[in-house]
Design brief:
Helix content is 35%, strand content 0%.
């Protein structure tokens, strides 16, 4: 709101950066390019859900 209309052009980049999987997926070689919803994946991880429930790369990582 404080940057006005010009700030709208940055929203796409901000959303993309928030979707990157950082933390919580240590050891996964695909974590830098993964686009799975990070907040949702975090909830699954905290619930100790099986990896294949929230990770599109579960079979690739094995």
């Amino acid at each position: 709101m404080t940057t006005g209309v010009e700030g709208l052009s940055r929203l796409g980049g901000i959303a993309d950066s928030l979707m990157l999987r950082t933390g919580g997926c240590t050891g996964c070689q695909l974590s830098g390019t993964c686009r799975v919803c990070r907040p949702l994946a975090k909830v699954y991880q905290e619930a100790k859900a099986p990896l294949d429930r929230y990770c599109r790369h579960a079979t690739t990582r094995r």
